[in-house]
Amino acid sequence: MILGPSDVLDTVVAAETPEGILLELRPAGLTARFYAFGLDWTIRLMIIYAAAMVTTVIGGIGVAFWLVLVFGLEWLYPIAFELSPSGATPGKRVFGLRVVMDNGLPVTAAASVARNLLRVADFLPFGYGFAIVSMLLRRDCKRLGDIAAATIVLHQPRATSRMPLHTVVPVSPARPLAPEDQAAIIALAARAPGLTAGRLDELAALAAAASGDVGRSGPAVTRRVLGVAEWLLGRR
To answer: Please, what's the b/e burial string for 132-149 (b: 16 or more CB within 10 A of its CB; e: otherwise)?
Structure first.
């Protein structure tokens, strides 16, 4: 084995659609979700503060409207955006995140309501303690609300690597490869067109031993690792 004990090259989880199509989903980790949450929270605070400045001069009706607005922003803000075509709040969109069902389909109204109502449980014992622990312990980075609602927060696909795979020269492995290692390298080559150049180099470095480039990384190493994939596929 050359790829480590987990036998994987990325934090990807598999999901099967009702049609039997197998999808690869890339869960969003704690850091990305923290930044998205922070941005959404800032947006809501700005709206609440601006509304308070206006409603205080109106009197009792203004205060009542402000309280309704605070309630709506706390409970309906995330649900409304998650049920939109983007499947994400403004904060999540900025950081390239999206909420979907476990099978990769758009989130349903019932699931969105459930995952957001259970933020109360995630907040316990303080400062989203349960949510943080759950996300750190689970491979799919789910908080309690996601587990109960069968939802998952994913990274949206972004710019492609532009790696010209048709120009990759087949390279014979520098050492014998276990079947699982061969499968992982071939899977990496299949995903290469959908990865950024930096991410592709990072993942290829994990399999650099296959091409004899242990401890090295960069475009040249990536090209040789992909060359090993070509060789494994019989394109010699």
So the answer is: eebbeeeebbbbbbbbeb
Contact between 70 and 44 (Cβ < 8 Å): no
Q: By CB neighbour count within 10 A (0-12 exposed, 13-18 middle, 19+ buried), where does 233 fall?
A: middle
The pTM of this model reads: 0.64
Closest CA to 151 of 110, 94, 190: 110
The encoded tokens of residue 37 equal 């949450």
Angle between helices 30-55 and 60-75 (to 10 degrees): 170
**Is residue 59 exposed (0-12), middle (13-18) or buried (19+ Cβ within 10 Å)?**
exposed
For the stretch 96-125, pLDDT in tens is 999 999 988 899 999 999 999 999 999 988
CA 115 remoteness from chain centre: 17
160-200 pLDDT, tens digit per residue, is 555 555 568 888 888 888 888 888 888 888 888 777 788 88
